């Protein structure tokens, strides 16, 4: 039993030393970022600045009229999608909801077994 307590007493300073070393590595490692990461961070900042500028313009301008929205959408489904074509959209030929299909499959499987 005395061997275990002696071993643990020698282990605790090593634990402290390792935790201090790991903390130092984490602190210095987080401060040193590669150059390409910093450029990627600034690209996101530029995009946010553009979004903020557009938001301020929208707040300062009067309410958007229906004609303006229709011009922006250019005859598509809505303003966000832009030139999306309604005829090119995927439509299922099956009119049954997926829940009913799953229920029918489950009933067929129960009948088979």
Structure report:
- With 113 residues, the chain is an all-alpha fold.
- It is built from four helices and no strands.
- It has helices at residues 2-31, 35-60, 66-73, 98-112.
- It starts with a helix and ends with a helix.
- The model has no long low-confidence stretch (mean pLDDT 76).
Explain the layout of strands and helices.
Elements: H1 2-31, H2 35-60, H3 66-73, H4 98-112
Number of strands: 0
Rounded mean pLDDT is: 76
| Morphology | flat
Distance between the termini: 64 Å
Q: Strand percentage, roughly?
A: under 5%
Fraction of residues in H or I helices: 55-70%
Major beta sheet summary: none
Radius of gyration: 32 Å
Structural class, from helix and strand content? mainly alpha
Q: What is the H/E order? A: HHHH
Number of helices: 4
Low-pLDDT residue spans: none
Quick structural summary:
About 70% of the residues lie in helices and about 0% in strands. It has helices at about 1-30, 35-60, 65-75, 100-110. The mean pLDDT is about 75.
